[in-house]
Amino acid sequence: MIKVTINDRTVELGENSTLLDAANAAGVHIPTLCYYPRLPTHAVCRMCLVKVKGAARAQPACKTLAHDGDVIDTDSQELLEFRKADMQWLLARHPNDCIRCEVNGSCQFQNLVNEYQLEERWEKLPIGSRAHPEHKITDHTSPSIWRDLSKCIECGLCVEACGDAGQQQHIIGFAEHGSERMPVTVFDRSLSETKCISCGQCTLVCPTGALIETPQWHEVMHTLDTHRRVSAVQVAPATRVAIGEEFGMPPGTVSTGRMINALRKLGFDYVFDTNFAADLTIMEEGTEFLTRLKSGKHLPLFTSCCPGWVNWVEINRPDLLPHLSTTKSPQQMHGALTKRGAFARSLGTDFTQGKKEPYVVSVMPCTAKKDEALRPGVSGDIDHVLTTRELARMIKARGIAFNALQEDGEFDNPLGESTGAAQIFGASGGVMEAVVRTAAHFTGQEEALPLEWHQLRGVTEGVKEADIPGIGKVAICNGIAAAQRMLLIDSWREEYVAIEVMACVGGCLGGGGEPKSMDPKVLQKRMQAIYAIDRNTPRRRSYENRDIQTLYAVELEKPNSHRAHELLHTSYAA
Ligand code: HC1
Ligand code: SF4
């Protein structure tokens, strides 16, 4: 342990702590723009400059190691002037259209401008005035991600998040040098023309509005306000344990009921649970898996509910497509059932005759779900996809006091009933654990096998595995980088019978559409909340979902039936 004194407060720290760690431990706020807990820092923004007594120059707190006995000053007049000068330089290149910006109110840069009272120093530049005619400044070609380089402050976090330290996709890299440095795509292509998998991890780390999810919430508000169609919304498992963060609640706060109440206040006629379809996914995918196990064909089976992963396979390894489960993701299953299944029919004949079909929205922790909804073969079943962040913006824009809502909202049925197995879909390892729970029943091993598979859980491990008696060895790739590493070594073909891949570390709870957070423990806290919901749900195996049993009895006949294939399965293309 070492002891350092920071602004007259002494704290004890472990070896290898930085000056920023010291400040955090002492509760001293130091501004940062290019620092993010899981990524390497390059100390380019210079906002965190602090002075160590005796040192010749101010040093970046994010990158400088603390030493025993250091006496650190963070708030001298000289340091404040440094920061203001730096921000002024950034502001001179930044468009002054905050009020129209999608991240207005949640922009780290804007927050600092406010904190340091810099509005008066802001030059009145026209929007997008950054002079770089040779590079694309705005790019709205991707259904999932929008880029606007005029808002970029060159922190480099997107390059790291997409590159070696994160997703290892290397879609964004730096062009130019010095003060002209800017993150651009490979060959300056539009994002939709690159190998971008739409995971949105770049949007999570962007401190401004330079990288955001393709916004759809304006259209959703407009459609709800004009209210010409019956509207239905579904909410994904990982959204309910994170949305509270947008309203100042601690990570891991479960807000299912509050979110349902907010969605009703926003004007949705029906509020359904994606978890219902997650249970259905398990029935279909579990059956598909056991059939493949019997025939020995196309093993190991790869899970297919993560659209970032499906995009990656289609773009980079089409030879693996036969291994992907043909089962649609829960989002798309739910969309198909809402638009074309018994629910649509229950609304009356009008709704199945074209024009007046229900308006269907989903709330997802994921940016890639926006492009999934447009895939050939499923497109049309979901009208709009909102991220967790977008839903929070809608709630704020409507003046709904989220924190004051009761946690008592309930989903509409029958597309709202679910089991604990569906809830754990939102965490890395959860889909596989849910498959195992139901496969154990299908193979007559329910009594013999445990319900919980802790080897498959966790948000920090790259690859997790478990040997399931009577079934075989299964693996979890926690993040697309872990999957890429596994696929480099061919032994996965013989070693495993099934592999779950989630493109984002942590699974959906770490998705690119979740609230942004600098809390290094945020993923663990969301994960704990997900497993707590599972423990407190009376039914914890997907086949126990009574509404799913009814659905098979009245409409689908049995898992993998002809009708089930029509509604619930899909195909892939290179
Ligand atoms: Fe997911 Fe899924 S778990 S993919 O992470 O299978 O996005 O939450 O909704 O579709 O259920 C996301 C989450 C989500 C689907 C389910
Ligand atoms: Fe890279 Fe994912 Fe961002 Fe695409 S969405 S640029 S793959 S981090």
Structural commentary:
The protein has 574 residues and is of the alpha/beta class. The chain is built from 20 helices and 18 strands. It folds into 3 domains: 2-87, Roll (Ubiquitin-like (UB roll)); 138-213, Alpha-Beta Plaits, CATH 3.30.70.20; 218-568, Rossmann fold. Helix 8 (274-295) packs across helix 10 (330-340) and helix 8 crosses helix 15 (430-442). The site of 2 iron/2 sulfur/5 carbonyl/2 water inorganic cluster has 20 residues, from helix 8 and helix 10.
Strand order in space, largest sheet: 2-1-5-3-4
Low-confidence stretches: none
Residue share in helices? 25-40%
**What is the highest CATH level, the class of the largest domain?**
Alpha Beta
**CATH topology category name of the largest domain:** Rossmann fold
CATH architecture of the largest domain: 3-Layer(aba) Sandwich
Number of separate domains:
3
Please state the average pLDDT score. 93
Rg is 25 Å
Total number of beta strands: 18
Q: Largest sheet, if any?
A: 5 strands, mixed
Query: Strand percentage, roughly?
Result: 5-15%
Oligomeric category = single chain
Gap between N and C termini, in Å? Answer: 54 Å
C-alpha geometry: globular
Number of helices: 20
> What small molecules does the structure contain?
2 iron/2 sulfur/5 carbonyl/2 water inorganic cluster, iron/sulfur cluster
The secondary-structure class comes to alpha/beta
